[in-house]
Amino acid sequence: MTAQNTSHEAEPTEDELLAMAYADCELSPEEAVRFEARMEVEPALVHRVAELHALDVLARRIAPPEPADRDWASLQLEPLYRGTVGIGWFLLIAATALSFALAVWAVATNEGISYLHRGLILSSLLGFTLLFLSVLWRRIRAMPLDPYRHVER
Amino acid sequence: MLIITTSTVPGSEITEALGLVRGTTVRARHLGSDIIGMMKGIVGGEVHEYTKVVAEAREEAIDRMKAEAFALGADAVIGFRFATSEVAKNAAEVVAYGTAIKMVKRDS
């Protein structure tokens, strides 16, 4: 396995971490009061917090707005989209299943292929089908136990 | 449980390093996702089907790492990182790892 995203950036100092937590309103009320008391006598901390606030404002300005979940959901619910997707999947699955069945039938009834070869081909297809169905069955049974299938982003 | 990317916890003192904790998962996307993903590759935009499988793997890896940290009696995981790789063409592998620690709140 090859790691692709290991970071080697310098670690921030304790004061920088406190300033970041303060700027993000992540300190407890007691910690915030202590930090503010330090800011009154340490101008460097005031300067650092001001920089972080400015950075936050800048980030909000340049970050593209993320559409709300309901906007994504409304796109999925459009009748034209749902109709074309539904019909598309039905045709694809039905035609694939039918093609598979016809291929099996063609092999099974082909007099040009010996019984041995027909048996081997059909056994392979049957084995593959059984394995697939067992995996599918297990997935269906495991889905209610999978807490991550609702994670979207 | 606190999980942070830095090697210290503001306002707290690390009393014990319990060692490496990690969580790994490999999650596959189904054939339907690949078909839709391939079509979105033609027209552009976010391939939500792939975003979803990576997000699922990320959350599962974090939870497994947290379970390992809980088992060690840790208060937090510091130096948290993700690593990814590809073990199969239609799957997302995510490794979440960090150092489990015990800590106490600093008085001043």
Automatic annotation (TrEMBL), chain A:
Membrane-spanning parts: 87-108, 120-137
Source superkingdom: Bacteria
Keywords: Membrane, Transmembrane, Transmembrane helix
Descriptive protein name: Uncharacterized protein
Annotated source species: Saltatorellus ferox
TrEMBL record, chain B:
Classification via SUPFAM superfamilies: YbjQ-like (SSF117782)
TM ranges: none
Domain of life of the native organism: Bacteria
Gene3D superfamilies reported in the protein's UniProt record: Hypothetical protein apc22750. Chain B
Protein family according to the UniProt entry: Belongs to the UPF0145 family.
Protein name: UPF0145 protein Poly30_34770
Organism: Saltatorellus ferox
